[in-house]
């Protein structure tokens, strides 16, 4: 089957015979070309949309990285300040150590044989880490030197303040002695391993000798307790305090206020329970009250 197409002009006439089969094939071809062209346009738009989404995600990642960078800078600055404070405290410790060594005439023992920086891990490319490592090694050195200095002080007996004397209160009276007595709670005989000094609640509790505070806080039976190590195997304890004014690590002098009188722990009234411990064993403090 054929179709005849006729075109008339002013001077010419054009006639063409086309088979239906060819006409259908041409129509199908034109439709396919249109579809391909339309699909290509849609693909370009989809790709453009994907690029926009990717750019938005990259912007979010970049903003987050910027925030993280700022947080890291703040943290590093805080670490740097802490290290600077640590170095300041180490310098003060070194000055105290040097003064004590001079009093003992043993300065030569504390001259560093090798600089800490020489024993550090070297150039790691991380200045902050190197500063931390240097501070750590310095602290190790000071700990060893202070331990040696403590032994030397105990051996020379140069500081008379270390020797125990006097009462742990400024005003009050001796209310209970060291030894066997009737327990105030049970009424049964029990060993009393210290002296009790009755005093007005809130009045001062004082150290009976210079030393290092090794306990500052609540302890079973004692209530609020202060314990001081005086070296040479001597330790004193001050129990049942109301408030404590020193902390562990503090160096106290003879007569210094370390707490206030109270009635905490296993206590029946305001008083100070005073113990003297020699080489790990409680002894009668009465001999030290001279």
Automatic annotation (TrEMBL):
<feature type="coiled-coil region">
    <location>
        <begin position="51"/>
        <end position="103"/>
    </location>
</feature>
<dbReference type="InterPro" id="IPR016047">
    <property type="entry name" value="M23ase_b-sheet_dom"/>
</dbReference>
<protein>
    <submittedName>
        <fullName>M23 family peptidase</fullName>
    </submittedName>
</protein>
<dbReference type="GO" id="GO:0004222">
    <property type="term" value="F:metalloendopeptidase activity"/>
</dbReference>
<feature type="domain" description="M23ase beta-sheet core">
    <location>
        <begin position="191"/>
        <end position="285"/>
    </location>
</feature>
<dbReference type="Pfam" id="PF01551">
    <property type="entry name" value="Peptidase_M23"/>
</dbReference>
<dbReference type="InterPro" id="IPR050570">
    <property type="entry name" value="Cell_wall_metabolism_enzyme"/>
</dbReference>
<dbReference type="InterPro" id="IPR011055">
    <property type="entry name" value="Dup_hybrid_motif"/>
</dbReference>
<keyword id="KW-0175">Coiled coil</keyword>
